[in-house]
Amino acid sequence: MTNLKKILQILSDGNFHSGETLGKKLTLTRSAIWKLIKKIKQLGIEIESKTNLGYRIVNGLELLDKKNIISFLSKENNESTKHIAIFDELTSTNTYLEQQQNLSDVSIVFAEYQSVGKGRLGRKWNSPFGQNIYLSIRANFSKNVTDLSCLSLVAAITVIQTLNAYGISNDIGIKWPNDILWQGKKLAGVLVEVFGELHHAYTAIIGIGLNVMMSKPNLSLEQSWCDIFQITNSVPKRNKLAGLLLNQLLLNINKFQEAGFKPFIELWEKYDLVKGKTVTLISGAKKISGIALGIDNNGRFLLQDSKGNILSFTSGEVSLRF
Ligand code: BT5
Prior knowledge:
Layout (H helix, E strand, L loop, with lengths): L2 H9 L7 H8 L3 H13 L4 E4 L3 E4 L8 H5 L13 E7 L2 H7 L8 E7 L17 E10 L3 H4 L2 H16 L5 E4 L3 E4 L2 E14 L2 E11 L16 H5 L5 H22 L2 H10 L6 E6 L2 E10 L5 E4 L5 E4 L3 E3 L3
Parallel strand pairs: 3-4
Antiparallel strand pairs: 1-2, 4-5, 5-9, 6-7, 7-8, 8-9, 10-11, 10-14, 11-12, 12-13
Bound molecules: biotinyl-5-AMP.
The site of biotinyl-5-AMP (BT5) has 29 residues, from helix 5, strand 5, strand 8 and strand 9.
């Protein structure tokens, strides 16, 4: 185990630990401890230091724990447990799975930290250490690419179901195609990447980022964000959320493989934050205002323009006023 991991484990209880005690426990000098503290701050973790008390992580930290996560999986998902890997640091959980050659091994990845967390269209996903959930799953689908465009909607629905299972059901919903919002603020996002056909099957990597307790985003987020901590007003159980999310995602991937998007349409309608609202849709160079009519059976966004025409979109950004 690295010294960084060791010191994080000690500090994860949220209590003060003096530089001297930390030095003894890790058999390191005070200045080596100070360097580790500096590194922890760089990872986006809020550290409080007090002259006579030492250092503490504000609100503590619940590090990811495979056993704990697995304890939330239902029987149907038992088989998946051997494909799970948890990393302290990756560039991006999606990128890691893209680069894996041995397709039968790890197909489910969590990371404590992403140095180059990805959003859609080259955007960044803010991914501080130990405070959120970054999960990617790789799966094969014998479907056509158009059908697979619904996967990101399925993943967004999965996040809402997870929140419900965790006890959160008010003020949450989805803004097409992949923004999970609480009171209009972004709580989670989905990035699905689909790769070339092999034996009539496509490989998709489904990435979900869910904010759990993000002390200080170190990127300036252009849009407003929130985390589970803000919603529940109590320190969230990160492994429970990770386990519930993984469990629901595996169940939904299976369902999607068997029956496509159809079984999810009703849920989408329930969680759709946009239907019936006046919105502006930006798709490529196009910017069109109109009334959102929900989605069609293929997950395409339907918009009625000012002339009454109904237009459908497979990709784009929707903006609306709350
Ligand atoms: C998304 O993109 O919402 C997709 C996010 C997917 C992240 C997961 S984490 C696991 C997996 N591995 C990865 O590398 N990625 C996936 P998009 O709709 O383009 O939203 C990106 C925008 O959201 C940014 O431009 C910011 O404005 C904002 N943003 C960035 N980080 C955020 C955060 N942690 N919480 C809320 N908003 C954020």
